[in-house]
Amino acid sequence: MSVLALEGVVKAFGDQVVLDALDLEVAEHEVVVLIGASGSGKSTLLRCVNLLEPVDDGRIRLDGEDVTDPRTDADAVRARIGVVFQQFNLFPHRSVLDNVTLAARHVHRTPKAEAETRGRRLLERVGLADRAGEYPDRLSGGQQQRVAIARAIMTEPRLLLLDEITSALDPQLVGEVLDLVAELKDAGSTILMTTHEMHFAEHAADRVVFLQGGRIVEQGPPEQVLRDPQHESTRAFLSRLRPR
Q1: Could you tell me if 206 and 135 lie in one domain?
Q2: Fewer CB within a 10 Å sphere, N or C end of the chain?
Q3: End-to-end C-alpha distance for the chain, whole angstroms
Q4: What pairs with residue 216 in β-bridges?
């Protein structure tokens, strides 16, 4: 059974259809990377999966459960999903350790001592053990994003959603964040992510999915989609990204 399955998902904003009867599955331990131009539906897809946007038609299943059923407890679903957005969204008035452990303590009811022990281990894993007591504004953008990733995996989510997590970073900080994502892949995380970093997608993804106009135009192994795309739209998109 797939961890995530989208079945005929439709999402529109007014007259603009952003997701057009979209089908997509993500298997356990699989890393799926969504690529496409701005407005192709990538971020909206992630927001629908995390129930931040209601779908207009179709179903989304998490471990087989229809989470788009109106009777679904959205908070309980989100507790099984880790999310990292473009902006770090850290609480500025809380320490790094508090940011990492907050959901575990207040949503999952993990005892404070247990949560902080795990939180410190995660901060060590992301290279920030010595910054546990700092406030986010004392950290670089790359460090803040690593804290956000540690927070997302603190509760051992079934699915990790990463939305252009390097787009707000200075170029020299991108590598350290992508290295961490590669480590999560090696550790067996199930990840659905959007990125404009094609080099990273080629080396970290199990499958690359090209979206255009809310539809999947092409998908497959990264070496096929990125190096030998079969669809003209995919070729045109990738050609715009390559340096001239």
Answers
A1: no
A2: C
A3: 43
A4: 211
